[in-house]
Amino acid sequence: MKVLFETPRLQLRTFASSDDTFILELLNTPSWLQYIGDRQIKTLADAQRYILNNLLRLYAEQGYGAWVVVLKDTGKPIGICGLFKRKYLEQPDLGFAFLPEAEGQGYGYEAATGTLAYTKQQLELPRLFAITQPDNHRSVRLLERSGFTLQGTIQPPGELTELMLFNIELGL
Questions:
Q1: Cβ atoms within 10 A of the Cβ of 18, count?
Q2: What's the chain's Rg over C-alpha atoms?
Q3: Cα pseudo-dihedral 38, 145, 69, 115, rounded to 10
Q4: DSSP the chain
Q5: N or C: less crowded end of the chain, CB within 10 Å?
Q6: Which residues on adjacent β-strands are paired with residue 67?
Q7: Residues pairing with 77 in the sheet
Q8: Local confidence band at 22 (pLDDT 50, 70, 90 cut-offs)
Q9: Cα dist from 74 to 54, 69, 100, whole Å
């Protein structure tokens, strides 16, 4: 695992296979299941496969992906934040999710704005998208507070739900 950047309270680092317990917990939280979907991660072995086949693979293929959000003072993983390249979007989108005990404390905003700065400086991407379900009010507020602008809605191929589509220009 490699620390990519720090904010006042957080470190964002790459995933490692040792993050299996954290992934098992995060992917089974009520908000993950409601807003992102059931990934069928029910055991530590499932979590290890998910890390290897999804998270680590993205680093190798794209040079970015989801990163672990860790509290600097304790080293405890509290969420993920990072970039996802979806076939139906021309630029990556910002995604994030946090454990319930970490919600409502500003960690999402801190991780998102840190990710935007890192993306602009290190990855040199001109803009990013973000997608969320219309009833995910916390994510909508976080995206707007982070500088994203609502562009409209999008229905991903094969999905039944229409999502809100946001974007942000990174000014390159």
A1: 10
A2: 15
A3: 110
A4: --EEEE-SSEEEE---GGGHHHHHHHTTSHHHHHHT------SHHHHHHHIIIIIIHHHHHHS--EEEEEETTT--EEEEEEEE--TTSSS-EEEEEE-GGGTTSSHHHHHHHHHHHHIIIII--SEEEEEE-TT-HHHHHHHHHTT-EEEEEE--TT-SS-EEEEEEE---
A5: C
A6: 81
A7: 70
A8: very high
A9: 27, 12, 17
Could you tell me which residues are beta bridge partners of residue 3?
Answer: 13
Q: pLDDT tens digits for 132-166? A: 999 999 999 999 999 999 999 999 998 888 999 99
Question: In a 10 Å sphere around its CB, with 0-12 CB exposed, 13-18 middle and 19+ buried, how is residue 21 labelled?
Answer: exposed
Q: How far apart are CA 79 and CA 155, in angstroms?
A: 26
Which domains can be identified in the chain, with CATH numbers? 3-125 (3.40.630.30)
Q: Check: pTM over 0.85? Answer yes or no.
A: yes
Calpha distance 118→112 (Å, rounded) = 10
Average pLDDT, whole number, for the chain? 95
User: How do 149-154 and 93-98 pair as beta strands?
Assistant: unpaired
Token readout for 74 is 């304790």
User: Using an 8 Å Cβ cutoff, are 94 and 130 in contact?
Assistant: yes
